[in-house]
Amino acid sequence: MTTNPHVEPSATVIGCPVCGSTRPDLIAAGVCYTCEFWQEQFANPGGLIIDGHHYRIGAEPPGEKLAVFPKGYGCYGTGFLIRRVDGTEIVTHNLWHQGEIPPGLVRPDNAAFVAVGDQVPKPEPSHRHADHLHHYTNVPDSFVYQCWFDDCGNWFTSPEEAAATDDRVMAYLRNGGTA
Question: Over 50: is that where the pLDDT of 170 sits?
C-alpha cells in the first residue's frame, strides 16, 4: 500500500500541503486530485505557461468554422499571438486554459502573450462553398446543392445561397468578428 508522502499517517488533512487544495481527496498514488491533474499537465508536452497559468493549443480552425461558431473553440475563438522562450511565435484561435498553477507547483513561464484579440489576424477560410457545389437532381427541392470540399458537406438551396454564406464569412473575418 502506498502512503501519502505529504501527510504523517496520524495527521488530519485539512488541505493539501503541496498544492494548497482544500479538497485533498486522496487517490491510490497518495497525492490529491489537484496534484495529480498538474502532474499530468506537466508530463504531457506542448503546454504553455504564461504568467503562472497553464494553456494548451488546439487545432487551428479554418476561417469559415470560426465565423460560424467561435464559442466552440478555446477562449471563445479569440486570437492570440504567443512567443515561446525560444523565440518562435504561434498564432492561435483555439487556446485552452487549464487554470492558474497552484503556488506549491509553480513552474517558470515558457511563453508570453504578444497580442490578443483584434490585433491578431483571423484565419483564412479553407474554401468557398460556391466553388465546390454538386447539384443533386434526385432529392427534394429544398436543399439540392452540397459542398464537396474535403469533409465540409454543407447543403444549400441554390448557388446564390452558398455565395451569400461565403460573403458573410468573409465579412466576419474582415470586420473583427461582426457579420
Answer: yes
3-class SS at 70?
helix
pLDDT, tens digit (0-9, with 9 covering 90-100), for 43-89: 999 999 999 999 999 988 877 777 777 788 888 888 899 999 999 99
Residues 161, 60 contacting (CB under 8 angstroms)? no
Q: Are 130 and 163 in contact (CB under 8 A)?
A: yes
> pLDDT tens digits, residue range 82-101?
999 999 998 999 999 999 99
3, three cell numbers = 502512503
CB 145 within 8 A of CB 155: yes
CB atoms within 10 A of CB 132: 16
- The string of DSSP letters for 109-167 reads --EEEEEEGGGSPPPPPS--GGGGEEE-SSS-SSS-EEE-STT---EESSHHHHHHHHH
Report d(CA 80, CA 117) in Å as an integer: 6
Single out the residue of 131, 117, 115, 96 nearest to residue 178, CA to CA.
117
Q: Give the three-state DSSP class for 69.
A: coil
Say how far apart CA 7 and CA 3 lie, in whole Å: 9
Cell, residue 77? 475563438
Strand 133-135 relative to strand 53-57, pairing: unpaired
CB atoms within 10 A of CB 93: 24
